Amino acid sequence: MAEQLQAPIVERVYQLNLGPQHPSTHGVLRVLLDLDGEFIVKADPVIGYGHRGHEKMGENRTYKQFMPNTSRMDYLSGMIFNHGFALAVEKFAGIEVPARAKYIRTICAELNRISSHLLWFGTYVMDLGGFTPFLYAFDDREQILDILDRVSGSRLTYSYCRFGGVCRDADAQFFDMTRAFVKRLRSRFPDYENLVTKNVIFIHRVKGVGVITKQQAADYGVTGPNLRACGIPYDMRKVEPYEMYDRFDFEIPVGMNGDALDRYRVRMEEMEQSCRIIDQALDQLPSGPYLNEKGSFKVVPPKGEMYFAFESARGQTGYYLVSDGSGTPYRCHIRVPSFGNLHVLTEVLKGTMVADAISILGSIDVVIPEIDR
Amino acid sequence: MAKKEDIIGKISAMLPANAVCTDDAYRSGVVFSASVPLEKVRDVLGSFKEGGFYLESVTALDFQDTGELVYHLNTYEPKARMVVRALVGDGAVVQTVSDLFPTADWQEREIREFFGIQFAGHPDPRNLLLPEDADYYPLKKTFGSVNAYRRREEIYG
């Protein structure tokens, strides 16, 4: 293989479009592959099909009006993006948040993280040819969507957080449903383990495939489960604890080799850790107000700028807001994790085979509208 | 931790004293910020690279009187984010840092197409997100409807 790559005969290299409508590119991603036989010589991801100009929209809207935009970037972890934006503006404008609201937001964000990982799990295994786990995962995910639907009134684009709390209180049934779900999900992990994690066909497709080294991760700004799979325990919830995360006892799962199997393991273990956080949050939940009424009226941060980072399901996300002292941001930049996570593929895909490209692309877990913004 | 202080010291030595600002309280989400002349950006980012930092995000700001580049760097430590900023006048050409930090490749492409800031030595100056034939710079304040178009000192004093 190595000899083939070192001396490619130019005529033998041909181009192949992977996407933009390939079922395993999850959204409109096109990867232009230069192939020598079945080996990839060069991979060039072509993005921008879903560009809507969220950053420009942010400059034309008040802070409150921009909230719905945030969940439309990463539509699979919309609650976490809403949450992060609320936290950024609260820190910027100095808005107090009642303790109950903080707990409710944390529970919802962690539920959203599990639902995002479940969707990834189902679709990834389906990309590799296993259809059944997809049905199991979507069955579980549907429970989360019902829970979040109950509390926010929406299934994907929640806009549930407000500056200073949440828009309505969570009721007893929400907590009952959440407890029942956590119990149910825990009983499902052994099934997933038997169906997929121990499945020899699955292991052959992912072990040693698509290795991201620590150096590559740092070069390309890879974060999230993809970075933790390389063995670096770097999670915004631990290193810059926001909201209530410093009060919960949870671990950061890490891998060793940085291959697709490690990325799979890290995400599966993260779901268990999210369950732990939800359990503790439900136990500690205080009563009291769910919204700081004063905070959400008119939000006017002082002149200056604010960078706020949080951990979405895909990695470190950051809002960079510049305020000119009015109710509208002067500049609203969003640092999205999938940007670096996809960019590293230009290195990782080199020298692999086309069939593995699908496995690697799936294991990275990119959401294209988030990159395009 | 000592490493981080070493780099701050090294960079402070390269720059005039009033260009550097340290904020241990982390009020705006960064621990250290440095305003750097455009031609020194590569040197400063080079020292960060040696210290094991990764480039988190590159973005630009558009003001009436000037443009500005903002580089956010971070390392795998708690609260270690640093920001390097450089004013970019009209038509100024910026040296690329995509050889130091490969992630800057795409980020600079994005800035070029959205703000019209040119990067010298960039290996692949195509449009990233916009159509190939786009001849406008959408995030400039002169494009489309904007809420405000200000001078830099109105915000940063």
Characterise the protein shown here:
- The complex is a heterodimer of chains A (373) and B (157).
- Chain A is α+β, with helices and mostly antiparallel strands and 373 residues long.
- Chain A has helices spanning 2-6, 54-59, 63-71, 78-93, 99-127, 132-152, 172-197, 200-206, 214-220, 225-228, 236-239, 260-284, 337-343, 345-348, 354-364, 368-372, and strands spanning 13-18, 30-36, 39-46, 161-162, 165-166, 304-312, 315-323, 329-335.
- Chain A has a single domain, classed as Cytochrome-c3 Hydrogenase, chain B (Orthogonal Bundle), CATH 1.10.645.10.
- Chain B has one domain (2-145): NADH:ubiquinone oxidoreductase Nqo5 subunit (Beta Polymerase, domain 2).
- Chain B has 4 helices and 7 strands.
- Chain B is globular, with a radius of gyration of 16 Å.
- The A-B interface holds A 47-48, 51, 53, 55-56, 59-60, 91, 218-221, 232, 234, 239-240, 303-309, 316, 318, 320, 322-326, 328, 330-331, 333, 335, 339-340, 343, 347, 372-373 and B 28-30, 52, 54-57, 59, 61-62, 70, 72, 76-79, 81, 83, 101-103, 105-107, 114, 127-131, 138-139, 143-148, 150, 154-157.
Keywords summarizing the entry:
heterodimer; A: 373 residues; alpha+beta; Cytochrome-c3 Hydrogenase, chain B; three-stranded antiparallel sheet; 50% helix; B: 157 residues; alpha/beta; Beta Polymerase, domain 2; five-stranded mixed sheet; two-stranded parallel ribbon; 25% helix
Strand content of chain A: 5-15%
- For this structure, what is the CATH homologous superfamily of chain B? NADH:ubiquinone oxidoreductase Nqo5 subunit
Q: What is the strand tally of chain A?
A: 8
CATH classification class of chain A: Mainly Alpha
- Describe the main β-sheet of chain A briefly: 3 strands, antiparallel
What's the rounded overall pLDDT mean of chain B? 83
Low-confidence stretches of chain B: none
And the CATH topology of chain B?
A: Beta Polymerase, domain 2
Shape of chain B: globular
